[in-house]
Amino acid sequence: MNTPIRRSLIAAALLASAVLTPLVATSKSITLPPDGVQLKPSSLPGYALAQANCVACHSAEYMLYQPPTAPRPYWDAMVKRMKAVFKAPLIDADMPAIVEYLAKTYGNEQP
Ligand code: HEC
């Protein structure tokens, strides 16, 4: 019954559990921070662009706490400020779509 194949399977299983057990034990001690606020979903193209460009440094909480009465120029200035002051790696061509998303999702163009 104890064929070489069976023995090597058992050896492999023992090895796997020896390798995996410490990993499992370690992962139990890791406490991840709670998920940050996510950007509000939208069908606008600026949504994906904002996901890619606007939540690398801070959570979407920053957008949420802007005045909902903020008009489009306010968001335009905000996006430009992120690039100029904080060096957000924004491509100029993407900025109008992001501003549109922000004004319609967080500003005074909300439905
Ligand atoms: C390179 C990092 C970085 C990126 C990328 C970035 N931001 Fe910021 N953002 C900051 C920093 C730094 C602050 C200021 C934080 C503070 O004052 O506590 C900030 C603040 C803000 C605020 C709060 C209001 C204010 O004026 O301080 C808003 C709203 C905001 N960002 C929106 C955006 C949007 C929209 C994008 C995408 C276009 C974006 N951010 C991308 C770094 C970034």
Q: In what range is the share of β-strand residues?
A: under 5%
Q: Quick check: average pLDDT?
A: 85
Structural class label: mainly alpha
Spans where pLDDT lies below 50 across 5 or more residues? none
Task: Specify the number of helices.
Answer: 5
Which CATH C-level class of the largest domain is it? Mainly Alpha
Count of extended strands: 0
- Major beta sheet summary: none
Radius of gyration: 24 Å
General shape: elongated
* Order of SSEs: HHHHH
The hetero compounds bound to this protein are: heme C
CATH H-level superfamily title of the largest domain: Cytochrome c-like domain
Level-2 CATH architecture of the largest domain? Orthogonal Bundle
CATH topology of the largest domain: Cytochrome Bc1 Complex, Chain D, domain 2
What is the domain tally? 2
Helix content: 55-70%
Distance between the termini: 72 Å
Structure write-up:
This protein is mainly alpha-helical and 111 residues long. It has helices at 4-28, 45-53, 61-64, 72-84, 95-105. Helix 2 (45-53) packs across helix 5 and helix 4 crosses helix 5. It is elongated. The structure holds heme C (HEC). Heme C (HEC) binds next to helix 2, helix 3, helix 4 and helix 5.
What descriptors fit this protein?
elongated; 2 domains; 56% helix; 5 helices; mainly alpha; Cytochrome Bc1 Complex, Chain D, domain 2; 111 residues; single chain; binds heme C
SSE layout:
Blueprint: H1 4-28, H2 45-53, H3 61-64, H4 72-84, H5 95-105
Helix pairs in contact: 2-5, 4-5
The structure holds heme C.
